[in-house]
Hints:
By secondary structure, the chain is an alpha+beta fold. Helices cover 28% and strands 24% of the residues.
Amino acid sequence: MSFQEKLSQILTKEQILRKEPMSRHTTFRAGGPADYYLKPEISQAAAVLKLCREAGMEVQLVGNGSNLLVGDGGIRGAVVELSSREIRVSPEGTVLIAQAGASLAKTALEAAKNGLHGLEFASGIPGSVGGAVVMNAGAYGGEIKDVLKWAKILLPEGSIREFSNIELEFSYRHSIIPGLGGIVLEAAFQLEPGEESQIRAEMERLREQRNLKQPLEYPSAGSTFKRPEGYFAGKLIMDAGLSGFRIGDAQVSEKHCGFVINRGTASAEEIRNLIGEVQLRVQEKFGVMLEPEVRMIGEFR
Length: 301
């Protein structure tokens, strides 16, 4: 029986996409096709990964592609996106549990609806819960590590284990999950009771700040670079004279130099080359090597 036939015993036709353009699944709106783009539910994930492993197929895990740059040559093997998106409040009333595929922004909105305070910072982060936990996503002074209670993780050998906040060893844009080769299945956030109106007002305040300061009108992966110790990436880039610097349709945003944007038809190669040129010029001028926050995967030409 072929890999495709075995896969069809686990997933429906709608959950199996062949030669799927990754430009449809990344916020950069760039990237070539994946051989397989698979969308299992949590209950199907272990079986799908086992099948890929037995077939000797490389697997790339993605959320909603908000932190990815996929090469124009695409991805050989399988891309797996967990499609389970349930969000629920635990019986104790102050813990919000979200499945890995849930939007982080929608999870923050669900917290607000239930009068739970603590996820306001996440209301504008364009990622999935799973991806946010893996990279300890943050904004406006808040990080996932501040509110995460536990995460349920599927380990490579097929077992599922619940990891506490401390066990995940969070640091700036980091957790131990990639090193484990694990997949986040769901996460629990320990929040505090609050007034819905006040929570929503804070979310609106942050939304206005984002609209004012960030180039949300263009495709991007958010902040392109990690914050170097003692500096701000955007200021270094601006002071290097790179505001508006462009390669093809890839450009350093004039609104916020910490963002590389796609002005329309930028290829992944143009975006990668622009990131590399920014790194080179900032290092030459200030002696600081900027580290990309964007994860680059797939085949670059």
